[in-house]
Fold each of these.
Amino acid sequence: MTMQMTQPAPVATTPRRLTPGDVAARTTSHNSLRETLSQTMSMAWRATKKMRRNPEQFFDVTIQPLLFTAMFAYLLGGGLSGSVEAYLPLVIPGILAQTALTACMATGVQLREDMEKGVFDRFKSLPMARIAPLAGPMIADLLRYAIASTLTFVTGIAMGYRPGGGVAGVAMAIVLTMIAGWSLAWVFTWVGTLARSAQSVQGISMMIMFPLTFMSNALVPVETLPGWLAAFVKVNPVSYVVTATRDLANDGQLTGHVGWALVACAAVIAVFAPLSVRSYKRHL
Amino acid sequence: MKHIPAVHAEGLVKSFGDFRAVDGVDLHVDQGEIYGVLGPNGAGKTTMLKMLATLLPIDGGRAEIFGVDVRRDPHRTRQLLGVTGQYASVDENLTANENLWLFGRLQGVSSRTSRATAAQLLEQFGLQEAANKPISQFSGGMRRRLDLAASLITRPPLIFLDEPTTGLDPRTRGQMWDTIRELVAGGCTVLLTTQYLDEADQLADRIAVIDRGRKVAEGTPDELKASVGNSTLRLRLTDAADQSEAAEVVRRLLGEDPVLSPESGRMNVALDAADRAADVLISLREAGIGITSVSVDAPTLDEVFLALTGHDTGEGSDPSATADKLQLEVAR
């Protein structure tokens, strides 16, 4: 009770002396870019705190890379490439994209769960940018993509995969996976703002995720596919990412595919970020 | 700048399908006052507050907060108010300290100032010892105080409190009331909703009574209570058949009709002052009318409602109804 260390903060008490009229005159009509960024980072900080206190959120990005890498390599390796070792350079980048996609599916489900809570009403009542509550958690999720892609490579290497791109190639592949994960997460964020419950987000997201991952070149070479399927696989943004990741990890080369993958990611963001913000605003 | 009202709303309307939750409410709150919106559950209080706080779109009418048009300029509006209610609460994944810091940061307060203000508010609200505990360990009263503290981090000039003491025990309620009074002493304007007449009475400078989305009365607490008398005498007659005679006795004595429940022989008499109860009882004895039970109470929200709208709050919170149940149980 003898503690008297906290002096009233000078800045905090100043606004009190302003009349409400002054405060009204000082309001701004919208958030500046700098404010929006700072709010987004604050929301990202909140999401990392939440992750640390709910470690079960890391299950999907730790177990799945181990499970999928081992499972698909042993299951399909012999049939598709003759041996597991020969299949690994093909499948590891595929699984990389697949786990990133599963990880970003969780983004939408968690957003929906979060939006049901009282604190989201407070967020809405604050003069903060409407994109911050959406983009913030997605930035925190970059950590999850990093864990997922690193573990996929570790599992692959343990099984005999020797990436030709070396450390630099693998690092670039991980960075590309994180970028791709962040971009594709906007699709699921959009679903999260649309759907009525977390369960329905899960259901809808599954139906988006399965075609996106399996109807791509992630697990099989495109040449083996029938024409109509190959046509879809070729425009699937996941295919661009997988091809680019293969170039980086296996050859250590910044090929045109990498450029196209980045363009595909940018296109996904350009479409789904505005849709998400609009749909989030409509929830008000 | 005293002439700009804190809240000015005209003909506010909110519909959910065919149901008009708020049906043309005018509201005028002056700077520095505590304005109470009183009404039962489902009367439209929260909906109205949410519209003013930009949490729900306004379907009809217009509203201004310190002269800022709520519908046209939601971003400016949000900078002028803090909202506390069962819906706008705090993050359960964070500690009290982290919550306040985050809400400061989200509103452009620097990290250092935010930390300092958080510490200051936690001390002011008696929460400093729980500053780093998980919110799940907080009691109801602590939660409410933290909710309120979270709205104050930027010291907004207007605070919305949606049922700030619903579900709190009497002692915690009293603490909350003190906190709200301090806010206003510090220059804040408060708009609060409540289901409790005594809360509005204790806190509010002016009260609006809301029923089925409409404002049915407005005035100071004294004006409002005067419309139903300052206290109520509740009687139960030995013989229900005496009721009309008893009513006549009361009418002659006070010049006003009592409220009768014919089937149970119950009678409620509004009194200007509690000591008039003795006069009524004496007159009844002189008239030879027997009484089984007597009590004198402050008017309840139900009675204010009955007086203002002609129907009760529809929540079965009528104390005499409870008394009936008790008697039934005793009879068994």
Amino acid sequence: MDDLRSVERIVSDDEKTKISAKNVQVYYGDTHAIRDVDVEIADKTVTAFIGPSGCGKSTFLRCLNRMNDTIDICRVEGDIRIDGEDIYDKRVDPVQLRAKVGMVFQKPNPFPKSIYDNVAYGPRIHGLAHSKAELDEIVEKSLRRGAIWNEVKDRLDAPGTGLSGGQQQRLCIARAVATEPEVLLMDEPCSALDPIATAQVEELIDELRQSYSVVIVTHSMQQAARVSQRTAFFHLGNLVEFGETGQIFTNPTDERTESYISGRIG
Amino acid sequence: MPVFWIVCAVLAIGVIGYGLCRSKAMKSAGGNARNLHSLPSYYGANAFLFSVVAPLALLFAWLIFVPILIDRSIGATIPEDRIAEGSSLGLMMADVSRVSNGLNLAVSEGAMTEEESRSIRTEFTDVRERLASVGVALGSNVDATILQAAQKHRAASDRSRLFMSIAVIALSLAGLALAMSRTKADFRARNTVEAAVKVMLIAAASVAILTTLGIVLSLLFNTIEFFRIWPATDFFFNTTWSPSFGDTGSELGLAPLLWGTFYISIVALAVAVPVGLFAAIYLAEYASPKVRAFAKPLLEILAGIPTIVYGLFALLTVGPLLVSFFGDGGTFGVEWMRGGTAVMTAGLVMGVMLIPFVSSLSDDIINAVPQAMRDGSLGIGATKSETIRQVVLPAALPGIVGAILLAASRAIGETMIVVMGAGAAAKLSLNPFEAMTTVTAKIVSQLTGDSDFASPQALVAFALGMSLFVITLALNVLALYIVRRYREQYD
């Protein structure tokens, strides 16, 4: 754990809160999946959610862009605000919300379309480009942001499903940033990738921090330590501890966090 | 010995072998099944297979081939000049075997003694009458030559039957002995039995393939026969279909029938594809599990309705309804339709019949599109309908095209609805309210007429069938190709 201390942590005190969740409860049918979660996620930082399988971290992540609405039996209670606006308010259109809160999934899921069309999908739906040239520009910018432009610039017409796993995941990240979201949610984005692809994606996450607030769910504590500034530890549907990453990993206040990090539970 | 008892005997030997080998295996392992290579039942099953499979195979081969050999050897003894005028050796041999079987039947029913049946003579007895009394009908009087041949036939058959019984049971016992001698603790009985199971599975798979092959060959030979007496160019390029059952004046052109087939199929697909596809999208994407559990089986019931019932529906309901709209003095004031039977009538009803094909297959295909794909699209901020139109349907498209092509080949092969809904007039016309007919309907009418089976008017049915077969085969191959070529590999 020595290397963790060497990671640079810049968490200034004057950062502004992007997402604030208070007293969130999630039910799957009769199961109470998430209890009393309070989290404040800062703008332009990477926040990692860690915890054992089934602890509710992915479920909570999906609350932040109302993806849980697509599951019939799922019910969310509590107060989640992005920039002070309640996203579960009746007046909020979940479709609009998801354009603002992009998401990258565990398994790379490019659409069965060309690389270009994969990235252009969001901008086309939301009418972000007024001309072909403008769309080309957005696609190029997004692919550059996804750190995949150099690998695919010569074959934008090739199907996105033909890329390698790591490339597919970066394509999905490019696709997510193409709609200019303010928050990027990542649900175990590296779990299906090999170490080299993982390193590329992690590097990318660090760059994305310049423009977005990134929330990443991960099983790998090393990954959380490497990429995040803040870490939240979930256990059995509860948020056990939330704080600055270095502090969580080196000096956790809760006994369960310490047990999990040192490998005794989980 | 009757065949039934031979089979029983062989099976009995098999069952005894099962018990013997099972206990022998146990004994050789010192009573402890752990010392055996396989479970004890495998040794038993192995013995059963050894003493049953080969003997039964021999039995069936004997039953199929030996009578042919007997016929041939007896046929050779009939002198050329004894074959009656206008008859042939084949016809005579048919009589011979019928007399031979008839005598056997008469003996077994007690109408004749064994002695009598051996000594019966055409000079003293009317054999035809005697056999008719036990229910064997003969086409002509039995003359001495036939009776003599029939007696030889009986003797040869009896001999063959005896040899067969001995051979089969001996083979069965030999198999049992072989299995016994091989049964030891380290004999790999399980591998042998599993190899036999594999052979059985292969045989099951071959049945379908071989049957298809047989159907194609029988079609092919008759088609060749037809083209030998009818010019192929006339069949393919003549635009008139008017078979007359006399010798002259028949025109047998494929074109009007093919056009009718395609026209009706197109109307049917124009109904079935949109309706079926929309139904599938609703069921797969929008319907709640409750509605789905109720609506999907209900839709699939449509596929279970016999086509003759659809035909009745076309004839009694849809036809008159269409006439009341498009017919003389109808609602629309046009006179497009003269009778209830029309391309439109058959096409609409056939379309309804095809809806469950399209919807059920498409529904399965849409459901097979991974949820991750939908999540990806929804996560970007697409609405449900954008997701369906731009992600789910393109991903499912190859499968949907396959479903549509399968429905198309169903439509092309459909007969009953056409016979009852579209009429029987072969016509090349663009008016969908006119009666037309299809290839399948004409195959039925050509073969069920009372024309000579060797005439071109009857044989043309096979050429029509072959054309249809080639077309639907091509459609199916195309469907398979599209599905394979463009299917996204999801894991």
